[in-house]
Amino acid sequence: MQKIKNNEFTFIIVVLIIGHLIGTMTHTFLLFDIIKLGFMNSAKAFGVSPIVNGYWMSLTIIDPVIAFLLTKNRKIGVLFGFINIFINVIVNSSLQIATLSIITLQSVYEALGNIFNGLQIALLLFSSFTLPLFFIKTACTTIQHKFNYFNFFKFIPIIALTIGFLIHLVGLFNLIADFKSLWILWVHVSMIIFNAGLIYALWKRMKFGYIIGIVGFSIFGLLQTGFAGAIFIGFNCSFNLAMAITISICCLSISSLLMNSDMYKVTIREMAIEN
What we know:
275 residues; mainly alpha; 76% helix; 12 helices
């Protein structure tokens, strides 16, 4: 039996706290508008019912309370946080879809990908995949428990990289059929090589792959987060659901690597000797 140490959950807790603090900030701004316009008038201005408006007001208190719980009692914090963000996404996504004049996959995708709803969906995705980790006390490595959740969580970086590899491979084939620019060609080719190499390094449990994985996922996640941050401070940047989900996947991959850092010990020299 492999015991999971509490400090291995630190990155997950930090991401969840940041997510709920961002929620606190946005709902505080909303509260200022409600105070300025009045409760009923603000509900009309926002185009929502007083019940929804009251719910949004309550999040000004609920979000920071959950952030506090995450620092004091992790299990309760992550559970309440998951419930909170789940309700949040259901309410806000329903409102977004309800405003659409024509409902298609494309229109729903665009509606759910706005900066606020997109980041909530990203946090829900991250919370959904990390929640089970706090309620499983040990990660079993015996044959009969080979496919438990902890073992699945170990492979999240490889799964993410494989999806990226396939996306760029399809993009490369499409580019061959309809060439657009050398830059796009370089992006697809370089990412195919990078993803393939990192998949191999992580599969072989190489320490080099672990380091590059942490750095790579951090850079890619921060790039997407940078666009979101730029929008918050007033810049006119694009943001969509794919970018939001990418942030979540990068955070999940980093969480997996940090939690399983002990398994990435093979050096390049050892790999060369073995081959």
